[in-house]
Design a protein that fits this description.
It holds the Pfam family Pterin_4a. By secondary structure, the protein is α+β, with helices and mostly antiparallel strands. It contains three helices and four strands. Helix content is 43%, strand content 19%. It is globular. The structure holds ligand H2B.
């Protein structure tokens, strides 16, 4: 289970996601999200953290006040896998409710 997605598979999955793009020079995907304020941003991050812990699959992320920038990559294979797509889908599903 769970090897790196091929370039075609990755492009197909990216097109189904919301606002994700490939990272230049690295096999990873990223999305930036903007919230009303820090409280909403951190509430969102808390929900993602709980999901990441359940999945045992963790984001790389950067937060300044109301902005959260997330990079997803599977460190064990150094590339994008179905686990990253699953976490990205979860992030998309809660982003609009934040
Ligand atoms: N997160 C990500 N993004 N990639 C991994 O390979 C990974 C992880 N491995 N979270 C997990 C934790 C591993 O280190 C533990 C030991 O299961």
């Amino acid at each position: 289970m769970g090897g790196k997605l091929s370039a075609d598979e990755r492009a197909a999955r990216l097109s189904e996601l919301n606002g994700w793009q490939s990272v230049a020079g690295r096999d990873a995907i990223e999305r930036s999200l903007e919230f009303a304020d820090f409280n909403e941003a951190f509430g969102f991050m808390t929900r993602v953290a709980i999901k990441a812990q359940e999945m045992d699959h963790h984001p790389e992320w950067f937060n300044v006040y109301n902005v959260v920038r997330i990079t997803l990559s599977s460190h064990d294979v150094n590339g994008v896998t179905q686990r990253d797509v699953e976490l990205a889908r979860f992030i998309d599903s809660i982003a609009n409710r934040a």
